[in-house]
Amino acid sequence: MTQEDRQSNVVQEAETRPLRRPEWLKVQLKTSGDFKELKNIMRQGNLHTVCEEAKCPNIYECWFHRTATFMILGEICTRACRFCAVTSGKPTELDLAEPERVAEAVVQMGLRHVVITSVARDDLADGGASIFAQCIKKVRMASPECAVEVLIPDFMGNRDALQLVMDAHPDILNHNIETVERLSDRVRSKAKYARTLELLQRAHEMHPSIPTKSSIMLGVGETWDEILVTLDDLRKVDVSILTIGQYLQPTRKHLSVEKYYTPEEFAELKKEGLQRGFKHVESGPLVRSSYHAHEQASDVIAQSSEAR
Known about the structure:
- There is one protein chain.
- This protein is α/β, with parallel strands linked by helices.
- It has helices at residues 3-16, 33-44, 50-53, 59-64, 98-109, 129-142, 159-166, 184-187, 193-206, 224-236, 263-275, 293-307, and strands at 67-72, 113-118, 147-151, 172-174, 212-218, 241-246, 280-283.
- It has one domain (30-307): Aldolase class I (TIM Barrel, Alpha-Beta Barrel), CATH 3.20.20.70.
- The chain contains 12 helices and 7 strands.
C-alpha cells in the first residue's frame, strides 16, 4: 500500500467515524429517592414515559421538579422515524382504562405539570385522539391544579381527531416539526412538514386561547438559514412556544449526528426566536420538547393574562 493510499484510508475513516460528543453534553446521573419513587409508581400502574423510552437526558431533573411525560397508546409505534428510539412495529390492542391510570399516577406522583404524548397509531381511525381527550378530562377531574400539556402525533391530517383533542381543552397543544423542510422526509416517517404546519394552524384557529408549541432538533444536516426559515414558518401559524435542542443518536441504526451546536449558537437561536415573537423559547444542547415544561406554561399563561 502506497503512502497516498494510506492517507486516503485515514480520510475515509475520519468521514465515517462518529463525531465525539463534546463536554457540554455530558449529564450527571442523579438517581435520588424521589426518582426511584416515581419510577415505581409508573411500573405499578403499567404506564410508560417517553422520558424513559426515548432515553431523554433530562429525566432526573424533570422528575425532580415533578414534571413527567406519559406515553400513552402502548409502547409500539406504527412509524419508524430515523431519529427516535421508541420501538416500531404492529401495536397491541387499545387500552381503554389507560386514561384512568394516568390520572391516578398524576395524583400519586404529585405532579404539577403533566405532558401526555403517544406513539403514532396509524392503525386507529382517529389516531388515538379519543384516548388523548379522555386523559385530559380524567387528569382534570383527579388533579385540577395540575397543568395538562399534550404532545400529539399528526393524526394523518384528520381534522376531526384534532378537534376532539382541542375540545378537551389542554393547557398547551404541542406538535413537533422536528427538522427543516428539506430534511423532513429523510428524518421523519410518514409525517410531512406542511401537514405539521397545517395542524398547528388549525389548532390555533379552533381554540385561540390555547397556546401551541413545537420543537426542532439540530445536528442532522440542516443549515443555519434553514433553521431560521423554520422559525419563520412556525410563527406564521401562531406557535407560541418553541424548543430547540441537539439531536443525539440513540443507536448506531439511527441517523448520525452531523454537527454538535455550541451553547453560544443555541443562545443566538433563542434570541432569533424571541425577536420573531415567540412568547417562550427554550434553546440549548440538552433541551427536549418537554424540558422545563412547567416554566414554559407559567411564562406563557402569565403573558396572556397581562395582555388581557
